[in-house]
Amino acid sequence: MTTYGTILIAAPLEQAAPVLGGVCTAGYAIPAGPRFCLVHPDRSVDDNSVFALAGPISAELGAPVLAAFQYDGDRLELEVWRDGLRAHRYDSWPVRDDESAHDAPLGADPAAFLDFAAGPVDSHRLASALADTPIDVQDMDVDGDPGYVWAQALHWDVLRALGHPDQVIRRAQWDYFHMRGAPKALAEVLGSTELVVLGTADRPF
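Below the sequence we write its predicted structure tokens.
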């Protein structure tokens, strides 16, 4: 499974782009509906990870920011930032780094994510996803263990429950390296006029 890091901003791309250009050292920004946009930073650059950028973006833009990092299909980490301060942190598998941690997800509070609703909120799906309790059978662990098979599906259900359309959710699961490495595939689903190149990033097509 692939690893990705993205930032969902509760502001349209045209509003966010000037701020992003001064904060993100290298990356791409794309629209995510009329009221949101996504940032895909080059995480190989120092101090340019989603969690490093979320605070400065939220402070300078004055809009809520949701940073997401999904590692190898196993773990989803989410951070909500407002006005330069981290307001909430979610970790689907905290015991991975700390064997003394509780095995249940950390920060499974649906109310913390409501600033990122793009439409009517499916409260049941949101709470179930954050609790690592999939509703759909195809997302359940085939070995009978509780939880999602893949962290991507958990992330998908969180955004779906917040009312985001499938196209936006797919874009939220892209990574800077996927975008840079597959220019032809990217060009088929994203018009070049919709993409903002940030900092030292190369235009992918």
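DSSP finds seven helices and seven strands in the chain.
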